[in-house]
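Hey all, quick one. A colleague (J.T.) asked me to put the zinc ion job into the tracker so the inputs and the structure tokens live in one place instead of scattered across chat threads. No bug as far as I know, just bookkeeping. Sequence used:
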Amino acid sequence: MSIPREVQASVAVAQEQRFQGELTIRSCERLREAVIADAAAALQVDIRADARSGWPRVHGRVSGRVDLECRRCGQRFAHPLDLALDLRLVRDEAEERAVLADAEPYCAVDDRLPVRELIEEEVLLALPMLPRCESCENDIANAPSAPQESSEEKPENPFAVLKRTLKTHQ
Ligand SMILES: [Zn+2]
């Protein structure tokens, strides 16, 4: 089953519609700009709409793998994705503000639920701001940190320590 571009939010919730299937990266206008979009690149989607928790929401999982380009070395690397979605559907900004403390709201303007766009947005939010491959990530983690003034004692020169030790034993 393919993921619909858009459904009616109230109908999706009332019918407890489930959206399950593959979403190709190429069909996502914004996402395909942010990642390396091969013809085969796709996300597995399994989300549903219902109001079983007492309020209308869209929830489920989006998983898969996107290929990114490392900002440091330019190499392509795979970035696994496994997102748990839980969005509370609201109708306007006032409602959005009201639920913000308890849930992640999604504003279904005019009862429209743009399913693909919603998934795309969530995936974009989950991508690293600065994509870096694993080896660059390790390089950075292991690099000596920049010299900084600290109150900590500097490690003693081992020769100085040895000299002092020899002296005391003389
Ligand atoms: Zn790299």
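Adding what we noticed when we looked at it: The beta strands are 7-8, 18-24, 42-50, 57-69, 76-90, 104-107, 112-113. The pocket of zinc ion is lined by residues 70, 72-73, 75, 132-133, 135-136 (CB under 6 Å).
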